[in-house]
Design goal:
Length: 418
């Protein structure tokens, strides 16, 4: 496939692409478009196109992905004891059980406060994999700057039993197409596990010379031909136009998943959409009200009346989550205490995490009383029922609270105000 701007075309997709361009022009769609407006534009501007081809199951890895990448998947944030150094095993296990109760189809352990060179890295993964006990998949994060680093990390994760790898490596932004392809291919070829590639905007994961908005479309296209590459995670701040371009290039072979659910009602009318994940999915659903899962299920079976109805209900919670998260993601980090608060609001452990005074974490927002009230209000506006536990419980975590730990026992309250 040859690159073109703004969206790649070929004879197989030109007719549907023309309709899609009309949709974009008629609806004035943008990266911050609302779900409801997107759905309305799709309904009124053009008829629903023919169903896209069924997902590719031509390799064992892709068959596995079609079965296991469904609905929502989450990030699993670590929980710490009051010293903010020691892992709270009970709290982590609680979050694994809660993730399963949420109906998530997998989880990606998020590294906070330690990296792969810290003994807690292996301890953390072993706790999660042991508690998951085959009930749902556990993914492994590859984030090194060289193939050698990532392959070494891959071997450790394989030995512990992860089911899939997210290739989120960092590379020099001035690499040419061939050099980037070979660097990513070296990692992918080193395992038979299913591999997910990552389309992002952060430093080291964005290549301005290789494609519009820094997305290396030709590289993604070539990687999509490798048998164990199964899927693409598209980061939250990536624009609708870039997301469409990625879909045009690889959705015939890979399961494409935008983190920004605003785009789903439009994308699902043109491409097969069945999952979104490895993000703070607790921000938009609870075990009793699995709105994210409902939206993905409706999109996967092309029940657009249901998808549009769920999208409208979801809008307040999703809008607020975008406002909280997108800025931090663009800076290369996560609003960590907000993320943990979302987990707690929906019934998980919660608990503050350590925050580095350096790098991207130095820019993340403080979780104060107005922020917590706004998160609760967005939950309620979407018909979600937040926890009724006392706010002080969040600070220490649900498991620690049950052990008698209280906020006064904490060594610090990083990025938190009462």
């Amino acid at each position: 496939m040859q690159a073109g701007l703004p969206i790649q075309t070929n004879t197989r997709t030109s007719a549907s692409l023309l309709n899609r361009r009309h949709l974009l022009m008629a609806g004035g769609l943008s990266a911050t478009l609302s779900l409801g407006a997107c759905a309305t534009a799709a309904e009124t501007s053009a008829p629903t196109p023919a169903a896209p081809p069924a997902p590719d199951t031509s390799t064992p890895q892709r068959k596995w992905a079609v079965q296991h990448l469904r609905g929502m998947l989450n990030l699993l944030f670590p929980s710490f004891k009051a010293d903010l150094k020691t892992l709270d095993e009970e709290g982590i296990r609680l979050d694994v059980r809660q993730s399963i109760a949420q109906g998530f189809s997998g989880t990606l352990p998020m590294l906070v406060g330690f990296g792969a060179d810290d003994p807690r890295w292996e301890q953390y993964h072993r706790i999660i994999i042991d508690e998951a006990a085959g009930k749902f998949p556990v993914h492994g994060l590859l984030y090194g700057s060289t193939p050698e680093q990532d392959i070494a990390m891959m071997r450790r994760l394989e030995a512990m039993g992860v089911d899939l790898f997210l290739l989120a490596s960092v590379n020099a932004p001035d690499l040419d197409n061939e050099s980037l392809y070979q660097a990513m291919r070296a990692r992918i070829a080193a395992t038979e596990k299913p591999m997910m590639i990552y389309a992002a905007l952060g430093k080291g994961r964005n290549y301005p010379a290789l494609g519009p908005a820094g997305q290396p479309l030709d590289v993604f296209d070539r990687l999509a031909d490798l048998p164990n590459v199964t899927s693409v995670k598209i980061s939250q701040p990536v624009t609708l136009t870039s997301t469409l371009q990625i879909c045009e290039r690889v959705a015939d072979r890979l399961l494409v998943a935008p983190v920004n659910l605003d785009f789903l009602p439009l994308l699902a009318r043109h491409y097969h959409m069945q999952w979104s994940g490895q993000w703070n999915a607790e921000a938009i659903q609870t075990p009793a009200q699995q709105l994210g899962n409902e939206l993905l299920k409706a999109c996967a079976v092309r029940d657009f009346d249901r998808a549009d109805a769920v999208a409208m209900q979801l809008q307040p919670a999703l809008d607020h989550f975008f406002a909280v998260q997108a800025g931090a993601i663009r800076n290369g980090g996560h609003p960590l205490q907000h993320n943990k608060y979302y987990v707690w609001l929906s019934g998980g452990n919660g608990g503050l995490v350590p925050v580095s005074p350096k790098g991207a974490e130095a820019t993340i927002p403080t979780l104060d009383a107005p922020a917590r009230a706004a998160m609760r209000a967005a939950f309620i506006a979407s018909g979600l029922t937040p926890t009724d536990a006392p706010e002080e419980q969040f600070i220490v975590g649900r498991a620690a609270w049950d052990r008698g730990v209280r906020p006064g026992d904490m060594s610090a309250l990083p990025r938190y105000k009462a």
